[in-house]
Amino acid sequence: MEHVITVENVSKSFGEVQAVQDISFSVQKGEIFGIIGPNGAGKTTTLGMLEGISKPTQGSIDVLGLIPSKHLRDLNKRIGVQFQATAIQKKMKVKEALDLFSSFYEGPTQKDYLTELLGLDEKMNAHFEDLSGGWQQRVTLALATLHKPELLFLDEPSMGLDPHARREMWSLIRLLREQGSTIVMTTHYMEEAEKLCDRVAMIYNGQLKALNTPEALLHQIAGQSLIVESDRLDYDDLLALPGVVRVEQAGEQFVLVSEDRQQTAYHLFHYCQENEVALLDFKFEKGSLDDLFIHYLEKG
Ligand SMILES: Nc1ncnc2c1ncn2[C@@H]1O[C@H](COP(=O)(O)OP(=O)(O)OP(=O)(O)O)[C@@H](O)[C@H]1O
C-alpha cells in the first residue's frame, strides 16, 4: 500500500489553545479520505499543516515524500488546494480566473479538459459573483486542479450546496479521483462522508477519535442500538437487561442502546416469553455517522 501522507504524533498549539493533540494517520494513494468533526475540532488546522501553511508544534508530517512546511515550493507543484469561493474576486469572469491561475504554472495546464469535464464552457463569460453556489464550487475545483495535482485538498467542498448540486459535486470529485488524484477533504455532512469517502477520520477536541471505512464505523454503531415496540414493555425492566446501557422511550417504542446487541436481544426475547409480552416491532437499528458523531460529543 503506497502512502502519500504520513502523520506521526502531530500536535499544534496556538498559545494556550491546543488545536491538535498527538494525532497519527496515513493516507493511501488513490483514496478519498474524509476528515470530520464538529466546529473547532481541529480539521482546518490539520489540513493547514498538510498543505504546509502552518508547522506542527510537535511530531512529523510527510506529504509525497516532502516535509510540507519546509518544501512548500516543491509541494505546491504537486498538490491542489481548493480556495473558498470568497477568495475569488467577485467581478472576475470565469475565463479570466482560469487564465490567471493557469499563468501560475510553468508547464501546460489541463484547463481545456477541466472546462469540458466540469461543463464550464457555458459560464466562461459570467462574473464569479453571478454564479450559483454550485457553479462557484465547480470553478474553485477547476482552479485547484489545473496542474493535475497528485493530491487534492478540499475544505468543505459542498458547503452551502443544495442536495442536487451536492451530488453533482460528489460525481466530480469521484471523476478527479478516477483521473489519478488522491483526495483529502473535510466535511460537516455525515451523508457525504458515508457516500463519498473511502475512509473517514473523526476528530474531536483536537484528538483522532476514530479512523476507518464508513462501513466499519457504521457497523460499530449498528452494534449498539435495537428498537422494540409493545404496549406491555416496562422501562426499568428493559434497562435491567444484560448489555443495555441506556433506554430511550417514545410512546410504546423503545430504543435500547446496548454494549452487546446479540446478548440483549437474546435476553429480551426470553423476557418477552416469560412475561407473555407480544412485540409489535423489533429491529436492529441501522446506525449513521451522525450517531457516531453524537456518541463522541456526549462522551467528550
Ligand atoms: N490561528 C489561530 N490562532 C488561535 N487559535 C486558533 C487558530 N486557528 C485555530 N485556532 C483554534 O484551534 C481550534 C481548532 O480550530 P480549527 O479551525 O482547526 O477547527 P475546525 O475543526 O476546522 O472547525 P470549523 O469546522 O469550525 O472550521 C479552535 O479552538 C480554534 O479556535
Automatic annotation (TrEMBL):
InterPro entries from the UniProt entry: AAA+_ATPase, ABC_transporter-like_ATP-bd, ABC_transporter-like_CS, ABC_transporter_ATP-binding, DrrA1/2-like_C, P-loop_NTPase
Alphabetically ordered keywords of this record: ATP-binding, Nucleotide-binding, Transport
Residue ranges constituting the ABC transporter domain according to the UniProt record: 5-230
Keyword Cell membrane attributed: no
Gene3D superfamilies named among the record's database cross-references: P-loop containing nucleotide triphosphate hydrolases
GO MF, any single term: ATP binding
Entry keyword Ion transport: no
Membership in a protein family: Belongs to the ABC transporter superfamily.
Name of this chain's protein: ABC transporter ATP-binding protein
Organism this protein belongs to: Halobacillus naozhouensis
